[in-house]
Design a protein that fits this description.
Blueprint (H helix, E strand, L loop, with lengths): L4 E6 L2 E6 L10 H15 L7 E6 L10 H5 L9 H10 L4 E6 L2 E3 L1 H6 L4 E5 L3 E3 L13 H9 L1 H10 L3 E2 H7 L4 E3 L4 H13 L3 H14 L4 H11 L7 H6 L2
Parallel strand pairs: 2-3, 3-4, 4-6, 5-7, 6-9
Antiparallel strand pairs: 1-2, 7-8
């Protein structure tokens, strides 16, 4: 078996590609082990990587959890390894963008919404199919999806299992935008280049302040920002000179 997750770096952008196109990039425990290694390496490389793109090879981002691997008895290294890997993505100091075409079902939807941003293509299909298989979420669906699109739409997706198109995903706030399939990776790279052109110090601070303050009241969140904002970065002087 070849590499199930590929990494390619370009100008401060790390592109992680789920590389099981023959299985629609379904999420086996062994794939998660490779993904976690890349995520941990990137988290430690704050000077070399400013933005991460997570994408799938072939016609789908990912069809979701690998049911065949489950039936075959394949297990992850620990009980909550997958959900902890999604938390590791969410907690990356770098900005993470999910670039989604084709299927993005259940476990892969949970994976995608662990990223900060999501860019969908016109072929993208989002769904929570836990109910179809008599499963319940443990990778974060019940918490991240309502925070992303609001409880009303999240409950609709979770209760019905219906498929949401890329266009609708952008309309309801599940995705930032929807683009043509043949433009997806180029457009995602353009967005990533815009991000890494800004101060990485500010990017890390923004992500930390938003994520840590999200579950606080407004007054507590404002206090948290005042007390924890790290102040100007070392590149502020040069950036002001070039203005």
């Amino acid at each position: 078996m070849g590499e199930q997750v590929l990494r390619q770096d370009e100008d401060g952008i790390a592109v992680l590609t789920l590389n099981r196109p023959e299985a629609l990039n379904s999420l086996s425990p062994s794939l998660f082990v490779e993904l976690r290694k890349h995520i941990d390496d990137i988290a430690a490389d704050i000077d070399g990587v400013g933005c991460v793109i997570l994408r799938g090879e072939g016609r789908s981002f990912s069809a979701g959890n690998d049911l065949k691997a489950i039936q075959a008895g394949e297990v992850a290294p620990s009980a909550h390894f997958q959900s902890e890997t999604l938390e590791a993505i969410e907690n990356l100091p770098q900005v993470a963008i999910a670039s989604v075409q084709g299927h993005c079902y259940t476990g892969s939807l949970e994976l995608a919404i662990a990223c900060d941003l999501l860019i969908a293509s016109e072929s993208a299909k989002f769904a929570d199919t836990h109910g179809k298989w008599a499963m319940t979420p443990i990778w974060g669906m019940s918490q991240r999806l309502p925070r992303r699109i609001g409880p009303l739409k999240a409950k609709e997706m979770m209760y019905t299992g219906r498929v949401v198109s890329g266009t609708e995903a952008a309309e309801i706030g599940l995705a930032n935008e929807c683009v043509a399939d043949d433009q997806l990776i180029d457009h995602t790279m353009d967005v990533a280049r815009q991000i890494v052109a800004n101060s990485w110090h500010t990017l890390r601070a923004d992500k930390m302040l938003v994520n840590m303050g999200f579950n606080k009241t407004l007054s507590d969140g404002l206090k948290f920002e005042r007390e924890n904002s790290p102040g100007p970065g070392s590149d502020m002087g040069e950036r002001l000179k070039s203005f």
